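Lab notebook, design round three. We kept the backbone fixed and only want residue identities now. Task for the bench partner: fill in a sequence for the structure below.
Input structure tokens:
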């Protein structure tokens, strides 16, 4: 769960900074993850169209990672609340 949480945190920071750059420049911007993935694909000799596809897919994957990280945090919180509620009920019984 912690790895997913950290991935979600890094993803969120990347998305926030990209959103701020978009607001500042008034034009679409790529996240750091998209730029890194595109640079890696280009370094391996991918065609420009393939680099663009890799960047697009990476952007979509970042949305999924963010959602999974959020759900992981929610599940962990729900489990903690359930444990605490169970302990409280056991001590009052």
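Proposed sequence:
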């Amino acid at each position: 769960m912690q790895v997913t949480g950290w991935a979600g945190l890094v993803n969120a920071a990347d998305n926030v900074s990209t959103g701020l750059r978009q607001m500042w420049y008034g034009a679409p911007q790529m996240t750091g993850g998209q730029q890194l993935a595109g640079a890696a694909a280009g370094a391996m000799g991918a065609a420009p169209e393939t680099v663009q596809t890799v960047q697009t897919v990476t952007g979509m994957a970042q949305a999924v990672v963010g959602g999974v990280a959020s759900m992981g945090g929610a599940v962990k919180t729900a489990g903690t609340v359930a444990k605490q509620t169970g302990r409280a009920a056991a001590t009052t019984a």
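Keep this in mind before ordering anything: Helices lie at 2-25, 32-43, 48-92.
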